[in-house]
Each structure stands twice: as structure tokens, then as C-alpha cells.
Amino acid sequence: GAGVSQSPSNKVTEKGKDVELRCDPISGHTALYWYRQSLGQGLEFLIYFQGNSAPDKSGLPSDRFSAERTGGSVSTLTIQRTQQEDSAVYLCASNPGLAGGNNEQFFGPGTRLTVL
Amino acid sequence: AQSVAQPEDQVNVAEGNPLTVKCTYSVSGNPYLFWYVQYPNRGLQFLLKYITGDNLVKGSYGFEAEFNKSQTSFHLKKPSALVSDSALYFCAVRDWAGGFKTIFGAGTRLFVKA
User: Fold this and answer.
1) Which of A38, A81, A116, B112 has the greatest count of CB atoms below 10 A from its CB?
2) pLDDT digits (tens, 9 = 90+) for A4-33
3) What HEC string does chain B produce?
């Protein structure tokens, strides 16, 4: 079956511009996560959605970052007024959520963001 | 708050030798523990997990991990390393008390030399 997909795969933007990154989770997965992986670094948790509950935004690094999830499925991560330090690979993952709380996460291929 | 530590940035091992990649964690409740692997130019893949039961869990590609509650550790092991095991390995913890938020360690790069 289809896995987690992300688009675009690569995004180059100029400093100060806004960008939107998209994630399509596995069908039926109620939990969706966004992470950031900087070059040579680990995964930094950004935000987590579970069904219709309020998202856990505790990992968002600044108010320039926001995310939404429409209809409990597709999610969009928006970065406003991008800075060079935002350059990283942004990973999305999904999980069955409450239906399978001990399940592993399924990761998308990531979006590589480069801010010039 | 939950946290994960991978004390080694890099582990070097000769092919055929046993390997260990270390992970320690901190949670307020019972932990769900995971290992993931990231091969060059590929996405993150699940290796194995500990939820409950036997402390020794077996996963993909011949890997196993031992849950040690007293030491709050979940070290990844393999009896005989392969060059193809060279990759970036991440330990992750989910605290049931914290919902489904999952925190990842900084990662350990494994180099297996022929």
C-alpha cells in the first residue's frame, strides 16, 4: 500500500520568503508528526497531531512555524519569513495513533529545504 | 519530560565483530522504546521496539535490543556486523503518560569496516 508521501522533495527559497511543505499520511493513520533534521544532526520534534485533538506544538522553534491538518489527513507545515538556519530536511511520519498506541512511526522521504 | 540520550556520535566496528549502539532514556511513566535506521539517501526505517514482556527484543536485519529498566537503557546489538549495516541509528522513546509524542535521540553513526 501507499506510504507517507511528502511534497515537494526539494525546495530552494530566498531568505524572507514563506514556504509550505505538505505531508500525506498513510490512510487511516490518526497520528501525524513533523520533525526537522539538520545536516548531520538528529531528529528535532516539531509538532504532533492526534485525531481531532489539539496538536502538541511544543517543538515549534518560533512563531514563524505553524502547521495544520485538514480533515484529519493531509498536513501542511508553513514557515514564514524563512531564515538560513531553517535549512534542513523536514520529515513527516504517521502512526495508527489511538488505534495502535504502541506502533512504530512510518516516515516519509522528507522535504529538503534550502534557504539562500 | 521524556528524553533520550545516545552518548556516542560514532561507533566503529570491524565486519564480523559484535556491535553495540547505546541508548538511555528518561520518562515519567512506562516507556515505549524504538530503534530506527537511516541508510544514506534513504528514509528512516523501523528496526525494532520494546513495549512490554521479554527484555530482549529482536528486529529486522539480525538486530536485537535489551531493555534494562534499572539502568534505563535500551542498547542496540548485533552479534556479527556487516559492512551494509553502516548507517545512522536513532533511538526513540514514547511515554504513555505523554500521549503519543515521540522523542528521538541525536543519532549514532555506525561505520563497519571490511
Assistant:
1) B112
2) 999 999 999 999 999 999 999 999 888 899
3) CCEEECCCCEEEEECCCCEEECCEEECCCCEEEEEEEECCCCCEEEEEEECCCCCEEECHHHCEEEEECCCCEEEEEECCCCHHHCEEEEEEEEEHHHCCCEEECCCEEEEEEC
